[in-house]
Amino acid sequence: MHALPGFHARYPGMVDVVGERAPLRTRRSGFCAGAHPDQCSLTNAGDWFGAPARAVHNGSTRATPMSTTKDLLLSQFGISWALTAHHLNGLSTDECLWRPAEPCLHVREVGTGQWVADWPEHEGYAIGPPSIAWTTWHMGFWWHKAIAHLVGEAGPSARDVPWPGSAQGVQQQLGALRTQWLELLSNASAADLQAVRAHGWPIPDAPLQTTAAWLNVELMKNAAEIGVIRFLYGVRAGRAARLQTPGCPSTQTRHE
Fold first, then answer.
1. Short-list 28, 26, 10, 80, CA closest to 231
2. H-run or E-run covering 121
3. In this predicted model, what pLDDT tens digit does every residue of 166-181 receive, in sequence order?
4. Which of 147, 163, 166, 221 is the Cys-Cys partner for 137 at CB 3.0 to 4.6 Å?
């Protein structure tokens, strides 16, 4: 039984859930198709969307049921990353820099190739929606900061993390952070996952497993935000194209 009707039609091959013992298949996430993440190694981690990653299945192609906290966290991360990669695939810089409303959270160029992000004074709805540029900047910021705190370094401030300046730069940055995060989480022992980190971020005095669970949710949320703005941009671009086409019928749609 599939979790959501129509899910596989929109995201073919991304995930297949059949009961509790099913293997996780994440075509775009780079996890091993049909194998548990702990049972394979990725030989082309840089190919983080598009073709599936080539996997080395340590002696077995049979998936095993999820049995540990790390298994579950890695599997959830695979789903969140698959959706993220789906919405980043084919993303253009024009889409990133499009302002979906006024006002909105956005980035601005302060020098040649140097982009800084707005920092809202509150989180009320009146600040407006974030642009894709702002959302992807925010992803880079919180991911850099979370990793820094987990390895015992001082996390960067918002001003220390610029927006990459292009859709390609965003893809490269987030792909590198994904690789770094997977290495950190995959190498963590059960004791590492449960050890409380006094200066953790974004949740103080929380163990790694709590931070990892938060990251899975935050990544999924940001992926959804990118997707919504891409849909709005696509409708806008399609409407503009129709209006510029001679003899094009009215853009009004009759609902029956």
1. 10
2. none
3. 999 999 999 999 999 9
4. 163
